[in-house]
Amino acid sequence: MSESPFKTPAQLDAMLGLVNGITDKSPFYREKFAGIDLNGIRGWEDFEQLPFTEKADLRDAYPLGLQAVPDEEVVRIHSSSGTTGTPVIIPYTQQDVTDWAEMFARCYSMAGVTNRDRIHVTPGYGLWTAGLGFQAGAERIGAMVIPIGPGNTDRQFKMMMDLKSTVLCATSSYALLLAEDIERRGIGDKIHLRKGIIGSERWSDKMRHRIANELGVQLYDIYGLTEVYGPGIGISCDHECGMHYWNDFLYFEIIDQHSGNPVPEGEIGELVITTLRKQGAPLVRYRTHDLTRFVPGDCPCGSPFPRIDDILGRTDDMVKVKGVIVYPALIDEILHQIEGASSEFQVMIDHLEGKDVMTVLFETLPGAHLEGVEAELRRLCKERVGLSVVPKAVAIGDLPRSEKKTSRVFDNRY
């Protein structure tokens, strides 16, 4: 049997080393794996019988229950935002920081970024992993970093123009905000950007094309999450056919979100990640709630690293309206098919006069026939989603823009 890029002997060796010693180092996993004979794990099938690690487990371990090394080995902590509950605190050793920078440097190299570039880093600094991750990877390849962080648009453009930034690092929401502002101010000829490294949230093809066209750059999706180092654990290449991930640092599984069983290669499911080298807070079979699939076959770029598809959404983005499951990604796909519709939308769900009502507000291009695009959205939602919706077309710029992630669904029923 030929070696699969998604399950390699080197990964198996690293995984066996991880699980066979993890209860000695991690009180969290000592408790979680109590009663399990970890020495009996010999292959992938044994490993896939281990219980999943859930986000709720990590929250319950607040503040430092995940720490698997002595205090003197911890050089930094990062944290999730905690906007949906207790934050998750992740300790990092010096080796963790070095490994993360190495993965991020690979991302920049995959995107064709070199030490001649000037990298404009807009994601936030501090407990959030983004800003420091983008900076460390850029420093590792020897590029000039402009660590400006988010906000203050006037200052963003002054630095961008005066320092001749060539690479923009941002969330898709903030990249769109900057792109629209550049067009509105008429300063496109003074901007020297050539690449955009975009992460933190799912974005539609329509949004991608708007940002790329208005900034005049090639865009790359970068992937990561706070619990697993941060951004930089995977990125798309020039061919835009999925994201390569660093399988010498990480083991990926894709499971059926309901049964927990592996899905056939190439089918969509929930991504589960095991960290093969992480010291400060190793994770075994961590459910990310991100929906994607393995991309089979060789990539035209020639990279030996395997690929997952773009993130299609999250299992916890799901809402149920009149018994029908709705994902923001599906609204994205529908809008992409409608001539005259732009990329930005919001879904409002209310309970009015004894029934659920789903309103879709969406931006339209100048000159679009509003009644026509509303009728088409109503038709496609009924056909594709199985729901009657209330469509409301608005002008470009009417929906709010964000420096971080954009909220798409507002469930006002509870």
From TrEMBL:
InterPro entries linked to this entry: Adenylate-forming_Reductase, AMP-bd_C_sf, AMP-dep_Lig_C, AMP-dep_synth/lig_dom, ANL_N_sf, PA_CoA_ligase
Gene Ontology biological-process annotations: phenylacetate catabolic process
EC assignment: 6.2.1.30
Keyword annotations from UniProtKB, A to Z: Ligase, Nucleotide-binding, Phosphopantetheine, Phosphoprotein
Transmembrane segments: none
Location of the AMP-dependent ligase C-terminal domain: 323-413
Top-level division of the source organism's lineage: Bacteria
Family (UniProt): Belongs to the phenylacetyl-CoA ligase family.
Metabolic or biological pathway: Aromatic compound metabolism; phenylacetate degradation
Pfam families in alphabetical order: AMP-binding, AMP-binding_C_2
Protein name (record): Phenylacetate-coenzyme A ligase
Occurrences of domain AMP-dependent synthetase/ligase (ranges): 67-274
Statement: the UniProt record of this protein carries the keyword Nucleotide-binding: yes
Subunit record text: Monomer.
PANTHER family in the cross-refs: ENZYME, PUTATIVE (JCVI)-RELATED (PTHR43439:SF2), PHENYLACETATE-COENZYME A LIGASE (PTHR43439)
